[in-house]
Write a sequence for this structure.
């Protein structure tokens, strides 16, 4: 058996690669936007890959999705309407819908094939997309935020990398539209890349958010499948400070069945390593 | 060129591997204890590997060494004498010696060839071993703590994995000896493995430290070269609580030239993800 049959490797910037022991390949399709793959591994459950980059591993996707959703949802005074841009795997929607105040979670995913493959092969992650409180729209997220007349309390930008179809999701005009469709205490959280390998991306995003929003910051999480382990979210809000306005009692009394996020982790995630603190100008 | 000539891969538990783009192999020796290798990579500087596992990468070793040394050294009221067990690469000693109160840092490394290879090939990490305030002893660390009549304010257990030569460094009798040779406000910090992949190791170590010391805890850091990125240190002390007794002003006024550790990171590192908090019984 050749090496590529035993490992599924993601090479990153040509200098590092992460490989997962392969059991079998389940699905591969080339959509209008990208290549979508689902594989089964020996130690990490099923993986969803887009253009060869791991987006979801069943073993640890809870970290990314919990940290993306619960930080803003426990900060917003009463989140009722949530928008997820990208995230066709459904993991972010699953975490959003754990909050009882949420009446509607709209997912706008550019690629319908990501949604259908996720529903079929990784239901642990995607099942929430079939909830009565979820609405799935197959459309370009940039176009959606530019044109919609709807308003949202929390927006999650669950994108792929800052190139290819997701490129505009890292730009200033997109974030001006995001601000327009956020309600009074609105919060936006965006996947922002690796502090070690993509410091430039984080710096650019930090600069844009600082210019567009009165409150902006960054926070960190670690998972098994993204290169380097450590990864960042960008945070911005019309007025909610992510640490000073955080009420840890709310997390405790909600008693959600979470495996990563808790009140201490919330505060700790905003502690930025010295080189990153300098880079984002905090 | 075959694949193994282009990447240096570390396979872990048979289910995951991390590979670094290889430039050239610089050194390989089989000592009485283990296989030692130094290679040069395209994106991560030089790596030190022991038995095929990456111990140090020049690009990011500062994270591990800063987090291991500065957490206890900024907590101890006045650290003068520090002991490092293992850590023959010298990175922990380098960080310890940044503290002006430290008069002597003793390094006890079982394998003299780790020290000599590190001094020759990775001086950025190892140069501090030649300091007048450092004393290098080539001896089994377990034997040293059992027999020494010296006393230390801070002890760092900078070990390899909990099998092979370092096995006893994860046992109860070792920690009883550590307690004996610690001074009144003494603190010990130990490399404790991956929360994702080695939860059992962390749980065992937490149980031992809880039985031997009045104060025990765990804290986290993330680097590029250890599988999964996220890694843990075990913390124990004769009386210094790692968060309640922490004085952030001391960090600010010390003005050390650090790239990772700062006062916020200190506190944030003790925020344990929910599954880990439960596992260590905090």
């Amino acid at each position: 058996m050749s090496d590529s049959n035993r490992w599924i490797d993601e090479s990153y910037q040509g200098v590092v690669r992460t490989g997962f022991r392969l059991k079998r390949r389940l699905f591969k399709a080339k959509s209008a936007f990208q290549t979508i793959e689902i594989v089964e591994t020996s130690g990490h459950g099923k993986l969803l890959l887009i253009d060869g980059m791991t987006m979801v591993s069943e073993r640890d996707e809870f970290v990314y999705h919990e940290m993306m959703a619960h930080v803003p949802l426990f900060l917003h005074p009463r989140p009722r309407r949530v928008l997820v841009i990208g995230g066709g795997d459904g993991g972010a929607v699953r975490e959003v819908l754990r909050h009882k105040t949420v009446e509607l979670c709209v997912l706008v995913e550019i690629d319908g094939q990501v949604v259908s493959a996720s529903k079929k092969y990784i239901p642990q992650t995607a099942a929430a997309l079939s909830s009565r409180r979820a609405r799935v729209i197959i459309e370009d997220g940039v176009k959606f935020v530019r044109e919609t007349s709807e308003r949202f309390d929390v927006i999650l930008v669950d994108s792929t990398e800052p190139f290819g179809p997701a490129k505009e999701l890292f730009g200033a005009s997109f974030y001006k539209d995001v601000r327009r469709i956020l309600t009074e205490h609105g919060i936006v959280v965006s996947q922002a890349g690796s502090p070690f390998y993509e410091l430039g991306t984080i710096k650019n995003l930090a600069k844009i958010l600082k210019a567009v929003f009165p409150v902006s910051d960054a926070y960190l999480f670690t998972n098994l499948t993204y290169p380097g382990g450590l990864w960042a979210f960008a945070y911005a809000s019309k007025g909610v400070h992510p640490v000073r306005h955080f009420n840890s009692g709310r997390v405790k009394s909600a008693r959600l069945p979470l495996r990563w996020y808790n009140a201490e982790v919330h505060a700790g995630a905003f502690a930025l390593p010295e080189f990153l603190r300098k880079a984002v100008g905090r």
Q: What stands out?
A: The first strand of chain B starts at residue 7 and ends at 12. The first helix of chain B runs from residue 3 to 6. The interface with chain A takes residues 3, 7, 9, 13-21, 41-44, 59-60, 63, 196, 220, 222-224, 228-230, 258-262, 264-265, 267-275, 277 of chain B (CB under 8 Å). The CA atoms of residues 163 and 170 of chain B lie 9 Å apart.
